[in-house]
Amino acid sequence: GNLMKELLPFSEHPSGPLTALCTDIFTKILLAGSKKGYIFRWNMASFLEDPRNKKNEIKEELCRRAHATEVVELFIEEEKNVIVTASIDGSVRLWHAMTGYYFGYFGQARKFELSDTSRLILPSDVSHFPAIIKEESKHMEKKVKYPLMLDRD
To answer: Is 105 exposed, middle or buried (0-12, 13-18, 19+ CB in 10 A)?
Structure first.
């Protein structure tokens, strides 16, 4: 959980140091969890296709408060299109990979309903709705002075 203690993501949300990272099987999506309970999703596909092209950048697509405390593990289950997160609070939660919709936690009495994402619910300890970052938004471009660069060494 403290492996990436000093690494802070570029985001408009107060996320804290990153504590967990994972990618999808094709390494096009990067997921990160933070010490303050946030999870982030970045799209790296265009950047990895041609990292020398300055127009191709890593785009933040989603930021959401997933837990009230530190995220210690996360992974993507691509066949079902879900993200699983775990926290030091002892909870393991299930989310829709693209929208950040909360399905529930492991150990709950009701079954997971993975097909219905129409009614938005939140975990009991989280009051922030997910922030889906639109591609045409220019807000982040002004804040980031040091973009991520590919270093093959």
So the answer is: middle
**Phi, psi torsion values for 53, nearest 5 degrees:** -80, 115
pLDDT digits (tens, 9 = 90+) for 98-117: 888 888 888 877 777 777 76
- Beginning with the edge strand found earlier in the chain, give each strand of the sheet holding 38-43 in spatial order: 18-23, 29-34, 38-43, 59-65, 131-132
> Where along the chain do its domains lie?
16-146
Q: Which two tokens stand for residue 25?
A: 């099987």
CATH (residue range 16-146)? 2.130.10.10
Give CA angle at 39 (131, 137), nearest 5°. 35
Q: What is the pLDDT of residues 109-152, one digit of tens each?
A: 777 777 776 666 667 667 665 565 655 544 444 444 455 566 66
Structure-block tokens of residue 79: 């066949």
Query: Can you give the pTM of this predicted structure?
Result: 0.69
Report how far residue 83's alpha carbon sits from residue 99's, in angstroms, rounded to the nearest whole number: 11
- Rounded to an integer, what is the distance from CA 1 to the centroid of its chain? 15
